[in-house]
Amino acid sequence: MKIVSVVGARPQFIKASMLSKKLSGKFNEVLVHTGQHYDYGMSQVFFDELELREPDYNLGVGSGSHGWQTGNMLIKIEEVLLKEEPDFLLIYGDTNSTIAGALAAAKLKIPAAHVEAGLRSFTQIPEEINRVVSDHLSTLLFCPTRTALLNLKKEGISNGVHWVGDVMFDSLVYFSAKAGERGFLEKLSLKPKEYILITLHREENTDNSERLQEIVSSLVEIEETIVFPMHPRTLKVLTRMGWKDKIGRNVKIIEPVGYLDMILLEKEAKMILTDSGGVQKEAYMLGIPCVTLREETEWVETVEAGWNMIAGRRGEKIIQAAKNFKPAGERPDIFGKGNAAEKIAEVLWDYSTLIKGNKGS
Ligand code: UD1
Ligand code: UDP
Question: Model-level pTM greater than 0.85?
Fold first, then answer.
């Protein structure tokens, strides 16, 4: 059985690294990198660190407007699918690489399996468009949370839906033991539990200058050491607006870091501020208080459990949250048991046996 897996953005390399390990030996997996992310620190570092083999195809699409980027990926993924003739396609999350894969496969009548299906923010952000369309085009849908399962049910999708837990929990469990050396903290002059970690990259924050300025200018008033591995999108906007050098001196801006160093930075932070989906989840998994710099989240269980506070983008609310948010209490296993990749591989295996049977009959 042949699977074509499509990845392209940083969190997808992390998710694929876990599933590829489980597919190997059972399936013939063809790994396609769309080239959506391409800087060393946004792409190759994850292949180097996470035991993920080099892609069979790098489509080299790169950056551009949504239509341009998605369209080019669609054309190039279609070429790969026509050449490889896989039994099914595997896609992850909610990026332009995901929707391009889903569309290319659907038009060629190749069934798609969507990992991280059913997430909803109920806003028209690009990621929501990508995941709704990808879910509706997929044959197998792997939900990381119970809420995701319910979201799909409300949209009339119940066939082929499986609750498996979150592959990002698998990767955190698997790679935690190898988390970056503590020397990395010393290199940055950081002391465990004496700094706040921030990540920020969502289009709705970076491409709205008023919001972005409000968020970054609030950081100085938090009056804590803050480490900021900066996504290139955010760096470009802040540099262009001339704001980068005006960010408070308590903020250490660094380049994006590899996953192992990121786990270390997260584990040792006293708090995390973020608009990232993956980082919100990891904060919860590691028991680090999280303040989300968005008006909503797809990961509602983390908020319900009391470990994630939705602060939005207003400076005063962010400052108050960073100074006062102190979660307490249990953290239920909302992301499963760390065996999501295993479960997905099993469902794929059963499904492939079914296809084989149908082809044979
Ligand atoms: C994408 C996903 C987002 C995900 C994020 C993970 C979409 C619509 N968005 O957002 O859901 O959370 O990846 O990080 O797919 N750039 C570089 N070097 C790179 C990559 C990007 O300089 O290696 C810069 C370019 O200026 C580019 C901008 O970052 O235009 C945005 O990159 P893009 O991949 O379009 O979107 P992300 O913001 O990374
Ligand atoms: N991450 C990383 N280095 C960084 C920032 C994030 O390795 O400098 C990891 C993070 O630990 C998480 C994933 O990237 O596993 C989240 O990706 P991102 O925030 O880019 O996207 P999102 O999850 O919002 O789609």
Answer: yes
